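Problem statement: downstream parser choked on a complex file, so we are re-checking the raw output for the 2-acetamido-2-deoxy-beta-D-glucopyranose run. The parser issue turned out to be on our end (a line-ending mismatch), but while we're here, posting the original submission so the record is complete.
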Amino acid sequence: MRSVTSLALAWITVVGLAVLNIVLLYTCSSIVNTTFKTHEDTTSSTKQVIQDVTKTLARNGNISGLVLKKPKVLLVIGIPTVYRAGGSYIFTTLSSLVSSASSEDRSRVKLVVQLSDFNISYHETVRDKIKEMFPKELSNEFILIHNVSAEKYPPLEHLKQNFGDSTVRVKWRAKQTLDTAFLMQYCQDMAEYYVHIEDDVITRPGYVREISEFINASGSSWSVLELSLVGAIGKVFRNSDLPKLVNLLTSFYEEQPVDYLFMYFKSITVQTNQYVRIPTVFKHIGAKSTLVNQTRSDGMDSLYFYMQPKRLKGDNPNATIETNLGVYQEHYIDKAYNKLNSDFFWGYTASSNNFFLIIFTVPQNVTKVVIDSGFIADENNLVNPLNISSNLKRRDYIIKWRLDYSNELVSKGASTTCEVFRHLQEYIEGPIQVEDVLKKTNGHVNCLRLSIVSQVNWIFIREIGVYVTS
Ligand SMILES: *[C@@H]1O[C@H](CO)[C@@H](O)[C@H](O)[C@H]1NC(C)=O
Ligand SMILES: *[C@@H]1O[C@H](CO)[C@@H](O)[C@H](O)[C@H]1NC(C)=O
Ligand SMILES: *[C@@H]1O[C@H](CO)[C@@H](O)[C@H](O)[C@H]1NC(C)=O
Ligand SMILES: *[C@@H]1O[C@H](CO)[C@@H](O)[C@H](O)[C@H]1NC(C)=O
Ligand SMILES: *[C@@H]1O[C@H](CO)[C@@H](O)[C@H](O)[C@H]1NC(C)=O
Ligand SMILES: *[C@@H]1O[C@H](CO)[C@@H](O)[C@H](O)[C@H]1NC(C)=O
Ligand SMILES: *[C@@H]1O[C@H](CO)[C@@H](O)[C@H](O)[C@H]1NC(C)=O
Ligand SMILES: CC(=O)N[C@H]1CO[C@H](CO)[C@@H](O)[C@@H]1O
């Protein structure tokens, strides 16, 4: 009932928005085009409105059969930037985006830097430095600089207060939402896809291919793809959706922060799955927010950015896996054994005798066992945001372990388990990779048991690979 109601509400919003478009679109584009019409202009402005609405409808529903230009490049990456006290990251962001793109990539992408400050002398500072650092990229239009004009914005005083945010914060977030709308408007029709990031992120070599592959792999039923799990960073939209987004952002900039509106865009468009690219493609580096005195923490961002895709290609025959470790959130051990998801195991050690027990549905002739544990963390992200490589550290890996096997399955009530175990590998320290298992076991293995010793607290397992004879 609840979901029916919210669906209905979503529809009312959609229909409402469509109807309002006739009025609003012009209000919105008057924010963008800024002119207030005199009485004599009415006829031509009405024509303009009708044309804009027709274009929007053509994009959204192809009602008029209007032929729209096909964008020339694959991606346009929108990067709004404003002054922040205590450190600017925009040049690091641009360096990362430029140096991580091959010359072929550069022909498929445009980077649009939007100078979003109302302080014009700050525009000049940033513009000059970009010209100095990236003359070639500017001249061949790999980088474009665009600036906002304060006079096109609605008044940002006396805004509605909500979410318990201070007046300063409400103004900051309302402006951020409008900045995004202007940026999207500017980027309209430049590329097939628009990617929104912020001015304090880094990426890695091959990001263009990674994004392109992810778009291809995501099918067609998405409206937002996520290349980062942080707020408004790394969100991919279709070029054809930009007019709707501009409407949404300019309609609700007082009520909602931009990342919430992105999230609501998913529900309004009835996108039911979340599409997150793991490893993520962009990593947040800004410790200082553009909101005065606000600092931000890294959270799980670096975990997802440095996480490798599953690579072991084990046979992983059907099995149930048990463990006595505590499980963090939903990161159950099956997630590490299942090759088809990009998830992992993350848990904390029990007081003693920690183990993972794999019980095969059918006895297996196991040849090799590999378990990839630990992850790369960016430990000093907030202390030293611009020297990434110096901060990387491996965390939560299994330090000391032993592997046993059993070929004696016993039934206990409704469940089955293994009882008598033999050593496959005595306690050792180091990566978990056990070869020649067939020779040591003579086949017909019912269970494998990994025992953990001398673990401090947390254990992260990216992937389990069990190899068997076919
Ligand atoms: C839009 O309509 C025109 C004319 O009816 C048609 O040729 C074209 O294929 C349509 N485009 C899309 C994307 O449906
Ligand atoms: C505007 O920017 C300039 C140069 O970046 C700076 O010196 C000045 O203090 C800023 N003005 C305001 C009002 O923030
Ligand atoms: C994605 O699909 C398009 C169209 O089929 C293709 O041209 C492009 O090479 C694909 N990109 C990748 C990275 O596979
Ligand atoms: C930011 O912090 C400084 C030092 O604590 C304080 O003087 C200043 O008023 C704060 N600014 C805002 C806008 O809260
Ligand atoms: C493994 O389990 C899946 C799902 O339960 C099943 O579809 C599949 O046939 C099983 N494979 C084998 C080899 O038993
Ligand atoms: C294991 O190997 C034995 C003989 O080498 C064979 O009979 C058996 O079918 C194999 N089992 C599986 C699950 O492959
Ligand atoms: C980054 O950190 C490494 C290791 O701490 C240090 O050797 C290097 O000089 C630093 N680089 C910069 C640019 O600060
Ligand atoms: C300060 C500044 O760079 N202003 C420019 C912003 O962009 C408009 C055109 O969109 C120019 O006319 C301004 O000079």
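For whoever reads this later: The radius of gyration is 27 Å.
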